[in-house]
């Protein structure tokens, strides 16, 4: 066979396997701007003519991993932010009113008066499990809504089980996500990977490991970055062959002209 190839009068071309361009999104389900950023990115994707060539992967991130897993007294987000940022309760409410307005413009309905602050690790473990079944985006959407709109306590095991089933996971799969250390490890691996890439806050969008968007940027910013990164990705993954000469040939069906 090698001899046959060596005697052929034209070079052989090997096409690269075409894969989708990847967009990675570092996010925490207790980050209000992550949900808004998700909507802005989705709007950009909906108008992107090559969206079928884009693969989206959600990456875990924790804004505050020090929140006790077994917090006895659930805190409202107003209390939590006031304590964390050293402001009074009224200042915290005004800050969140501004975020509510931003969310409304993105088509989201935030109810901070119901939001219960909780460590997001267990939710992220379920998201990591959901990714194994291509349910990562659905998991993010359900947890965002549960936290910001419905006021669900994501530190409550029964709540997590119910949300996991809503995502599409079975009870044994959810139990595995909550108890198997491999999912906790996956969460921390995402966080460390993001840190190496320069992620210092979320949401953080990485396009083809070349371009990054930090924060809930306007829809147009996502459109421009999608197009630029995809155009470059397409050139780098081109499989077409430029013809320099053409002559008599036989087709695969046996016709010779």
Brief rundown of the structure:
By secondary structure, this protein is α+β, with helices and mostly antiparallel strands. The chain has helices at residues 2-6, 32-46, 77-85, 89-105, 121-131, 136-148, 157-167, 171-179, 181-197, 219-236, and strands spanning 21-27, 54-60, 75-76, 116-117, 204-207, 211-214.
Report on the biggest sheet: 4 strands, mixed
Distance between the termini: 28 Å
Class computed from helices, strands and strand pairing: alpha+beta
Q: How much of the residues is beta strand, in percent? A: 5-15%
Low-confidence stretches: 1-17
- Rg (CA only): 24 Å
Instruction: Report helical residue fraction.
Output: 40-55%
- The string of secondary-structure elements, in order, is HEHEEHHEHHHHHEEH
Query: Could you give the order of strands across the largest sheet?
Result: 2-1-5-6
Principal-axis shape equals: globular
Number of DSSP helices?
A: 10
Explain what you see:
With 257 residues, the protein is an alpha+beta fold. The protein has ten helices and six strands. It has a four-stranded mixed β-sheet with strand order 2-1-5-6, sandwiched between helices. Strands 3-4 form a two-stranded antiparallel sheet.
Topology:
Blueprint: H1 2-6, E1 21-27, H2 32-46, E2 54-60, E3 75-76, H3 77-85, H4 89-105, E4 116-117, H5 121-131, H6 136-148, H7 157-167, H8 171-179, H9 181-197, E5 204-207, E6 211-214, H10 219-236
Parallel strand pairs: 1-2
Antiparallel strand pairs: 1-5, 3-4, 5-6
Notable features of this structure?
49% helix, 257 residues, 4-stranded mixed sheet, two-stranded antiparallel ribbon, globular, alpha+beta, disordered N terminus
């Amino acid at each position: 066979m090698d001899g046959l190839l060596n005697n052929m009068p034209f070079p052989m071309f090997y096409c690269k396997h075409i894969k989708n361009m990847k967009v990675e999104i570092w996010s925490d389900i207790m980050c209000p701007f992550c949900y808004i950023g998700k909507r802005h990115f989705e709007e950009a994707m909906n108008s992107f003519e090559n969206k079928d060539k884009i693969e989206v992967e959600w990456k875990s991130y924790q804004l505050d991993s020090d929140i006790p897993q077994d917090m006895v007294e659930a805190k409202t987000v107003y209390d939590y932010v006031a304590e964390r940022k050293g402001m009074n309760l009224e200042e915290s409410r005004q800050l969140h009113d501004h975020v509510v307005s931003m969310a409304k413009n993105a088509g989201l309905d935030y109810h901070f008066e119901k939001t219960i602050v909780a460590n997001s690790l267990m939710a992220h473990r379920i998201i990591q499990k959901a990714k194994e079944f291509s349910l990562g985006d659905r998991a993010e959407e359900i947890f965002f809504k549960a936290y910001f709109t419905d006021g669900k306590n994501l530190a409550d095991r029964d709540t997590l089980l119910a949300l996991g089933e809503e995502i599409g996971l079975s009870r044994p799969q959810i139990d595995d996500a909550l108890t198997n250390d491999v999912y906790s490890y996956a969460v921390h691996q995402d966080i460390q990977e993001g840190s190496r890439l320069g992620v210092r806050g979320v949401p953080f969008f990485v396009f083809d490991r070349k371009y990054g968007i930090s924060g809930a940027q306007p829809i147009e910013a996502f459109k421009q970055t999608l197009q630029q990164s995809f155009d470059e990705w397409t050139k780098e993954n081109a499989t077409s062959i430029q013809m320099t000469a053409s002559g008599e040939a036989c087709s695969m069906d046996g016709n010779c002209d």
